[in-house]
Amino acid sequence: MSDSKVTFENVAEVLQNDTRVKLAGVDADGMLRGKLVSKKKFLSVIDDGFGFCSVIFGWDMHDRTYFRELQISNKENGYRDILAKPDLSSFRRIPWENNVPFFLVSFYDPDTREPLLACPRGLLNEALRKPAAKGYRAMAGAEFEFYQFATPDRNASSTATFLKENPVETLPPLTEGMFGYSLTRPIHNQEYYYGVFDACEQFNCGIEGWHTESGPGVYEAALQFGEASEMADKAGLFKYVVKSIGTKHGITPTFMAKPREGLPGNSGHMHISLVNSDGTNAFFRSTPDPSPPYPDVAHLSDVGRYFLAGILAGLPDIMPMFAPTVNSYKRLVENFWAPVTVSWGLEHRAASIRLITPPAASPKATRLEIRVPGADANPHFVLAAIVALGWRGVEKKLEIPVPPLSKGEDMGGANDKGVRLAKNLGAATATFMHKDSVAREVFGDAFVEHFGGTREHEVRLWEEAVTDWEVRRYIETV
Fold this sequence. Notes:
Blueprint: H1 11-14, E1 20-26, E2 32-38, H2 39-45, E3 50-53, E4 81-86, E5 92-94, E6 100-108, H3 120-133, E7 137-150, H4 159-163, H5 190-202, E8 207-212, E9 218-223, E10 226-227, H6 228-248, E11 251-254, E12 270-275, H7 302-314, H8 319-322, H9 328-331, E13 344-346, E14 353-356, E15 367-370, H10 379-396, H11 425-433, H12 438-443, H13 445-464, H14 468-474
Parallel strand pairs: 1-6, 13-14
Antiparallel strand pairs: 1-2, 3-4, 4-6, 5-6, 7-9, 7-10, 7-11, 7-12, 8-9, 12-15, 14-15
């Protein structure tokens, strides 16, 4: 963890015993892209930034350029540099790399010096700006479920190496069977289990709760609640910690939404609330409403109701930001505790939005839990979408569009009260990019065209792929 608050005035002093610095920014898929630089180089760029190849916004997660050239990085502009500026407030040290200093960067257009249209950190900061202008701060908490696999040869370079020569189903889970909240399963890999927890604390992305989930080799982590802008950073860095510590132990964690057929998927639930300038919870209604539109919102303030309505109204139009991969939609199916409709309910874990208010929670803990995102989603885009949609609801004073799910009511089936969310990435992207989509209203055409284009690329690769399932099913029978 950083032991000093870094500013322009003291950065040289904080780094006086260092010779190198690691820098990283976030790409459209939520992946960290960065480099190691000399301290001299770092100190020379903290004022004006430095050039960073724009191709990180011109290719996919496997460095394949998008089939359709997009605005930021393309042949016409020569895959030119964009501007990267270190964020000194993001300072921490990497404990598993000899405490090398680490800073996040944000990306800017080199001509206008404005935040780059697809920079995840910039998009979130822009979404947070509007409620901040009215005296509100957004607070958030992230939860991640993820599977972990043991590389059969613990000395192998990676699971990817193993999978080049072996079927994916032969990759063994870290532990067998279903045993959620087990106190004994983590002992099987105790050094890794405690190593992740301790490294997260030291790397300033601390874990609040850490336990096994129901599924072979599945853990769940709830990160320590905090400012929404910092939470997105910490969520992305948490994945970095887990993957880094896992590598040292021959373990491959996966944040895929659905890595195993027939088993629950990996969620990336996000909790959100607004606080007033005095720190009080803006979603809490101090005097219960005697005649609320629904009993479920008796303890929810008007601002909270508008915010909830805004997310529900825009949810179908921003689905690629919550479920960004082809695999995402394998999780969002009926009967697996994953929401598939525009729905909400008080303390209802089957709904897309779980409302948490008194009497089940304290006034300061009043919040919304957005349960649609998977663990594979980019946390900056998830929070940007939540805040942008919620604030749209506040500005427009939107009414909650659907009644709550009642206790015992499922979210699946033909008689749902809410609209069925997209069943695949292609449909979700088409809705996202529609000329009248809410996404265009809150994020602008430039972002929608860029991010939508990246998702069209994913869909095209999937449509061209020949899968193991197809070969097994049809090789002899057709």
